[in-house]
Design goal:
alpha/beta, Rossmann fold, seven-stranded parallel sheet, 11 helices, 7 strands, globular, binds nicotinamide-adenine-dinucleotide
Amino acid sequence: MGNNILKGKKGIIFGALDEKSIAWKTALKAHEEGATFVLTNAPIAMRMGAINELAKKCNAQVIPADATSIEDLTNLFEQSMEILGGKLDFVLHSIGMSPNVRKGKEYGDLNYDWFMKTLDISGISFHKVMQTAEKTDAMNEWGSILALTYIAAQRVFPDYSDMAQAKSVLESIARSYGQRFGKLKNVRVNTISQSPTMTTAGSGVGGFDVFFDYANKMSPLGNASSEACAEYITMMFSDYTRMVTMQNLMHDGGFSSTGITEEIIGELTK
Ligand SMILES: NC(=O)c1ccc[n+]([C@@H]2O[C@H](COP(=O)([O-])OP(=O)(O)OC[C@H]3O[C@@H](n4cnc5c(N)ncnc54)[C@H](O)[C@@H]3O)[C@@H](O)[C@H]2O)c1
């Protein structure tokens, strides 16, 4: 049972691929907290069909949209306002993909067409989402827009490859558009930097299992789960966080403030 902290709020949730997805967990949580929303994903991801199962559970409609296509995004925002009967209070950008990572390219042998795709899908699409929201006048005053990111934007994690650059772009866009949307409509824009999480996007990164374990041992609270992330996102969509904007919010069990832990010392002295 929820606490209705999103009662009456309307939104769009990008990126629910399957039940492991952070966006999937967020949809369930937001529904439990009283929100109504439209679910969206890239047309190619729809073919797997799982999103319809989620839509049923959340009483939501699904509109396909490639987040790099202005045409798809414009249709998405216009249709969503019609379906939901008004403007939006929240948007979740939970999108990431790198062809270079997916195809196992070394950082010293990147394919630059793919690099541009990584930047477009995983970074610039956040700007496209917000620019379209602005142009279609889709946001209500005091709305909340969020994207998910990873600490590789600030520190090097070799297997994360060109996704690190995409996340830096994403976080920078959150600050710049946060200033603009704040002035325009009191809309807040933030990124949440999440622990490694066992999802399709996460486990696509080389050596993920070992890395997941390492991060867990480097975090006093352990890795943050996707369920915990969904709860944090829900709070960021609620009226309890109206003055938080242009921030990169760490949701990582303490990983980002840790130098070393007894557990890691123990492992290395074995
Ligand atoms: N899993 C992790 O370890 C981790 C850690 C920190 C941040 N994140 C971020 O969380 C977000 C969600 O990822 P996830 O872990 O839930 O994995 P996921 O694979 O379930 O979600 C990624 C989503 O991006 C969508 N997508 C890809 N290309 C798209 C496009 N062109 N248009 C629209 N959607 C597109 C996919 O269809 C998928 O639904 C991503 O931004 C990811 O980088 C993940």
